[in-house]
Amino acid sequence: MNGDTLFTIGDLARRTGLTVKAIRFYSDTGIVPPTDRSPAGYRLYDIDALTRLDLVRTLRDLGLDLAVIRQVLDREISVPEVAAAHADALEIQIRTLRLRRAVLRAVAKRGSTPEETDLMHKLAKLSDDERRRLITDFIDDTFGGLDANADFVDLMRSAMPELPDDPEPEQVDAWVELAELTQEPDFRASVRRMAQYQAAERARGDHTGLHHDLTETVRDSVGRALDAGIAPASAKAAPVIDALTARYAQTFSRADDADLRHWLLRRLEIAGDPRAERYWHLLAVINGWPVPPSLAPVFTWFAQALRADAGQPSRVE
Questions:
Q1: Which residue ranges of the chain lie beneath pLDDT 50?
Q2: Where are the alpha helices (DSSP H) in 111-168?
Q3: Distance between alpha carbon 33 and the CA centroid of its chain, in Å?
Q4: Alpha-carbon distance values, 123 to 23, 128, 180, 263, 277 (Å)
Q5: What angle do CA 146, 149, 152 make, to 5 degrees?
Q6: What does the alpha-carbon distance between residue 268 and residue 3 come to, in Å, rounded to a whole number?
Q7: Given Cys at both, which of 120, 232, 298, 309 links 304, Cβ 3.0 to 4.6 Å?
Q8: Alpha-carbon distance 110 to 39, whole Å?
Q9: What is the pLDDT of residue 316?
């Protein structure tokens, strides 16, 4: 074979694996024009046309449209430029397919209705920015215009849902539940009350911020009481309550008296909405963070013990 060898359309079809119809189409559109004609008028192609056709087949297999292929062949854009752009497009498609797969698995797991399935699909398709905006709008609505605990608000704003490119069904499920939760008017009202309480406390001079150490103290002390089977209204609960109220009095520079205990009970009631803890649990699942054990049993026991100490009737939390 030499550079003067010419091929018929049938020859090209055998060498490239393309159909005669496809080669004729590429020829008619000028993508791979014929080099010459036989005496009988049949189209003939040289080795360059064969190489050009091989490139067309490769680019088509990669999913490029004919307009882009023509630009590549005419050297208006380079193959590396096309490859980079196409790789980016494929990355988006792959991410979309992974999300669809996760949604379908989540739907199968929860036995969703058609309406729930539609909602899950719409929420899962949101971009990272759209997901952050939904949560940011929730925070703005509940904390906006109030001088609430600045450290807590900063924590809320820093903890955004980051759904991975290839999420597990549980992560999609958690994101859908979180999105629904933040749109519940009753939950928004509950968080707003908490923000108003924080603002009122700051107006009274409380600028102490977050209290992780205090939370750990309550967890440890009440946890031991729960493990020991101590009822919150029993006499054995009194030393636990006394030690905790003394710690709160020290932290907030208050007297350890009846007023402190009423104040503390009110504080626990304001922060005691179980949906607030659920909010953080869902964020942990979405972002792949370790999910901490629930503090609900601990603070329920604490509140019940404070009510008993104050002579108030206990109630189910």
A1: 1, 313-317
A2: 114-124, 128-143, 150-158
A3: 51
A4: 44, 11, 10, 41, 22
A5: 120
A6: 88
A7: 232
A8: 71
A9: 36
pLDDT at 82: 66
- Within 8 A by CB and 6+ apart from 287, the residues are 161, 162
- As beta bridge partners, residue 58 has none
d(C-alpha 254, C-alpha 208), whole Å: 13
Residues with Cβ within 8 Å of 41's Cβ and at least 6 positions away in sequence, in order, are: none
Amino acid at 290: P
- Tokens representing residue 182 in the block: 């933040």
Residues 148-179 as b or e (16 or more Cβ within 10 Å = b) = bbeeebeebeebbbebeeebebebbbbbbbbb
Sign of the CA dihedral running 125, 130, 135, 140: negative
Distance (Å, rounded) from C-alpha 248 to C-alpha 104? 48
- pLDDT for 22 equals 92
- For residue 110, give Cα distances in angstroms to 81, 105, 123, 138, 171: 44, 9, 16, 26, 13
C-alpha distance from residue 292 to each of 9, 198, 266, 282 (Å): 68, 24, 25, 11
* Helices and strands of the chain, counted as H and E runs: 15, 2
What's the pLDDT at 307? Answer: 94
The predicted structure's pLDDT at residue 315:
38
Residue type, 317: E
HSE value, Cβ hemisphere, 13 Å, CA-based, for 257: 4
Residue 43, SS3? strand
pLDDT at 205: 92
Name the 3-class secondary structure at 25. helix
Nearest to 182, CA basis, from 156, 164, 150 = 156
Place of tokens 């030690």: 243
> At residue 110, what is the residue type?
R
